[in-house]
Structure prediction request, 392 residues.
Amino acid sequence: RNFDDCTEKKVAIHDWVKQDGFHEMVENLEYRVYTGNVEKKLKAQSDAAEAQQKNQSFKNFSKPGHKHYNSLFTNLENESGTAMLYKACPATNPAYSLQHSAVQLKYTTESPQTGVASSIGRRPNMEDNHIAEDFDIKIGDVVHPVQLSGVFDGHGGSEFSTYVKDNIVNCLKYYLETFNGKGLSDAGIMTALNIVMVDLDGRLKVNTPGKIKINGALDKAGNQKFRYPGSAANVAIILNNKLWIANVGDSRALLVDDDNEGRTIQLSKDIKPADVGKKAQARGGFAFASGVMGQLGTGTATGNHHLASVSSRPKVTRFTAEEFSGKKLVQVCDGITDVASSNEIGEVIAEYFKEGDSPAKVAGKLVAQAYAARSGDNLTCMITSLQTLPLG
Prediction:
């Protein structure tokens, strides 16, 4: 693909979406390049995240004295390890009890600043993935460090969340360097974050896990059945003293001030099917609150190559050092936000940090509490203590 033409491409899809080669057209239209001032676009997305936070209902997740409050299951003594979740939250159905008697929490210190915790929860398979990695990009003769973290909530299998995790660093490095060849700019970084998720979606690539054969399974017509995995993705980078969030689907990023009673700012908006009705219709499909094409429970996603009306373009927000310095970046999959509002997550995290816990332990306790609150999904939480940066 040729990115020499750096004019912002604004195009619409019309009735010709039903022609042969529709997938190729959609792929091309997804690649949109920004060159001018992107402040309005960034502010619009920040405002949307703020509005979503204000409209969230209180879910009794953090209230002291509530049955789920301080359900820690076990003391998390080491900086990395495992813990059994089941004992503090047994099921009343004996068959269910046997099925979930070995539910584990895994928590890991990825770096002195970053900890992550995850659990299969009440799902038969673990489909979540995550990444925390630092790398450098070179713009001219200048080397810029990049701090990357992300959570990937797979669906239809773990293949696509694993694929995104394994390939995002090289892909992001390439696009950040490509679109900032004359020096770092907000437009260049925003373009790179948009295009990296579309490129990882790889609808036309042969090496993406977009179509998985189900061995021995046939449809009603006697044809081989396939499944089409996909993934939500919430990706954060810190580059040149700015925090960028690129969100596909319904995972969420938060900024928590644990020195201020857990004051929380939602950094990304969960994209639900009801949010993308016009976009899905423009691609020849439909989306209702129940799902895109009646199948996909999130509004956007990477993968799901059987659904041409699903976009993989992220919503991007940006925050300055004045806004994030010294706070906690929290990234969670929707197994946690299903049972806790953004403000409740922030309050719980602040309480645990007051106890002197590391990011890994705090993430572990949050996952355990979400499990106790009867979340029915896989559970993943990543917490990064953002360094206090010079503001001059």
Summary: The radius of gyration is 21 Å. Residues 1-19, 91-99 have pLDDT under 50 and may be disordered. The longest strand covers residues 142-155.
